Amino acid sequence: MTVSGLLKIYDELPAFGALAEALGQHEPIPALLLPQGARPSIAARLYLEQRAPVLLLTGKVEKAAAWVQALEMYLPAGDVMRRLPEPTPLPYDRGPWGERCRHGRLEVFTRLMAGQHPQIPPPEQPPLIVASARAFLQKTLPQRRFVSATRVLRVGQMLDLDKLLRHWLDVGYEPTAVVERRGQFSQRGGILDIYPEAAPWPVRIELFGDEIDTLRYYDPATQRTLQLGEARQIERVVIPPGREALPVVAQAYADSLPDDLRPDEADNLPSWRDDIAALQSGRAFPNLEYYLPLLYPQAASLLDYLPDDSLVLVDDWPELETAVAELHQHADIIANEQTELPPHYPSPLHQWGKIRDELEWQQPVILGEGAEPAEGEPPFDLADAFDPGPRYGGQMRPLLTQLKSVQKEGERAVIVSRQAARLADLWHQEQKSQGASDLLPPLTPLESLPELPPPASLTFVQGALAEGFVLARRDTNEILLDLLTDAEIFGWKRPAPRRWRRKRPSAPETHFSDIQAGDYVVHLEYGIGRFQGLVTRYIGGMEREYLLLEYANSDVLYVPVHHADRLNRWIGSDERPPKISRLGDKSWSKAKAKAQKAADELAGELLELYAARETIHGHAFSPDTEWQAELEASFPYRETEDQLRVIADVKENMEQPQPMDRLICGDVGYGKTEVALRAA
Question: What was the pLDDT predicted at 504?
Answer without folding.
Answer: 42
